Amino acid sequence: MRIELQKRAAVSPLFSLVSPLLALALTLVFGAIMFAILGKDPVAAMYAFFLEPLLETWSLHELAIKAAPLILMGVGLAVCYRSNNWNIGAEGQFTIGAITGSYLPIVFYDWHSPLVLPLMLLLGALGGALFAAIPALLKAHFNTNEILTSLMLVYIAQLFLDWLIRGAWRDPKGFNFPVSRDFAPEAILPAIWEESGRAHWAFIFAIVAAVLCWFMMRYTLKGFEITVLGQAERAGRFAGFSSKRMIWFGFLFSGALAGLAGIGEVSGSINHLQPAISPGYGFTAIIVAFLGRLNPLGIVASGLVLGLTYLGGEAAQLSIGVSDKVTRVFQGLLLFFVLSCDTLIYYKVRIVWARMRGGVA
Amino acid sequence: MTIFEAILLTVITASTPLVIAALGELVTERSGVLNLGVEGMMIMGAVAAFAGAQIFGSAYVGILCGILGGAIFSLLFAFLTLTLVANQVATGLALTLLGLGASGMIGESYVSIPGIRLGAIAIPLLSDIPVLGPVLFRQDLIFYLSIALVLGVNWFLFRSRAGLKLRAIGDSHSSAHALGIKVIRTRYLAVMFGGACSGLAGAQLSLVYTPQWVENMSAGRGWITLALVVFASWRPWRVFAGGYLFGAVTILQLHAQAFGLGIPSQFLSMLPYAATIVVLVIISHNRRTTLINTPASLGKAFVPER
């Protein structure tokens, strides 16, 4: 058996739409098989994992909480990847954004003002952008591989947070636990609709960011510049676009959104700083970006799907006793299937069953 | 044993997995394939080795399981990038994410179970040499394998016909294809060799370095490995030297933490990662030498014309 590919003359619009759905379906099938191997009833498991969290209002709120950072970061990363710059350190930028954004409510705890929250968000985005500026600088001026540098910086950011929380920013009344003091009420991102659940404004930021990005990519010169430089750098240079400036733009933009996601998560859901503030959101956002086909509106949908895997993992752990590690496996599988199904968009795939000898093809 | 010998021994133990995994990735990249999934293959190797050793009660079976685990896992990457021509960067990331998740799930029942340590093999006569003997010749099998791999990969790439073909593919897959060299088949083998080496490196982590299973125990070593290959400008001996440089940094910061120099431990733990960045910057700032050393078709998709 052999698989032959033939390049399509043009991108298939049908498969552009179908391939993410196909990937999703394949992941579900494989997931069911995996549960069966683990000795769980696959139907009950899939129900607990993917449907049950959608049936109650409070858990829809939780879904919005999980999806918000994923969408914010996914949108930023998509723009960055479109320009052919590979920022995979969103997790680190998320962490630094959470730290810089928490500076006001922790260090100036006694400053009560309606200005606190907007300044926090601003500082968070700024921190994320500045942290992303490091790999950008190294790529633009020293030609250094941005994949490796941005990833190394994730470890550095996490260690820095750990140091802060165990040292200078530890809550003096926290019984020596590594947590900061709880934020004052005016430093907490308000709930969208308090009567029914916890979902807070970060989700609205995420939707707004996605819509604005979609507009930018589709209707503005900047969007065109990003696409051209990403797909054909030489052509872009002839058009007068600077790939160096694009490195900066891609990283600062995705870093700022990751930083905003970080402070949004800390201010809205956790309400203090602690050593672990993210269950790998920054890495999952990479999957979100690809599942959404690097399209900001697609990313809203894929962010909800991956948010559901987090939520389902927690629910399934409680109700059917599978490990929450299953979540990461699902996420990894999903990215694999997305990438393989994308082949259908660019190529005609033919499976040749007979073993061929010379000249037949 | 003197403190000096002890430090040397720990440096060797910390460097061996880096050297092994980097050699594997070097061969993969020399064939023109960029596999960013080293971290994932390494952690899969680590969990496979630990499980194998537990089930069969032998660290040697564990090594074998680690190698197989890494190689089989890398096939996923090979199928996606070589047969389905998926984006290599994204697929490598997928391999890492899936590996970290799957190993966590597989290893869940092994958490906090005492592991089986791979025993040392003393080489007769040589192990009696003062100072050097106990350090170099009373080591475990994986260390000896790492040395054999440096020599072997160097010989293969620069002294054998197959190695020449592999490098030709990495420098221009279309020309190699036109000459009748089997591009895809060679690349499959190169990716699997990389996977096997990463798996062996993982086995070293869970059988020698810290003989137990801890989730995410590879702790970014796979990524450091990738940097190491760039640092070594795709040459086996430089991989060896670079691996020991990084191993030494890791160990020295641990000793510095133990001595308590007044520097917070977190900042010392940052050192290996920061060192990686610094080294990468130094190596790659000269565009021309980078261009000369990098395999020319690294990371580019290849679809054979029919």
Describe this structure in words.
Chain A has 361 residues and is mainly alpha-helical. Chain A has one domain: ABC transporter involved in vitamin B12 uptake, BtuC, CATH 1.10.3470. Chain A contains 13 helices and two strands. In chain A, helix 4 packs across helix 10 and helix 12 (296-319) runs antiparallel to helix 13 (326-346). Chain A starts with a strand and ends in a 9-residue tail after the last strand. Chain B has 306 residues and is an all-alpha fold. Chain B has a single domain (13-293), classed as ABC transporter involved in vitamin B12 uptake, BtuC. Helices cover 72% and strands 2% of the residues of chain B. Chain B is built from 13 helices and two strands, in the order H-H-H-H-E-H-E-H-H-H-H-H-H-H-H. Chain B has helices at residues 3-30, 38-56, 59-83, 88-106, 132-136, 141-159, 161-171, 173-178, 183-209, 221-231, 236-259, 265-284, 287-293; strands at 120-122, 138-140. Chain B has a two-stranded antiparallel sheet. In chain B, helix 1 packs across helix 10. The longest helix of chain B is centred in the first third of the chain and has 28 residues, at 3-30. The mean pLDDT of chain B is 90. Classes of the chains: A mainly alpha (361), B mainly alpha (306). Chains A and B meet through strand 1, helix 6, helix 11 and helix 13 of A and helix 3, helix 4, helix 10 and helix 12 of B.
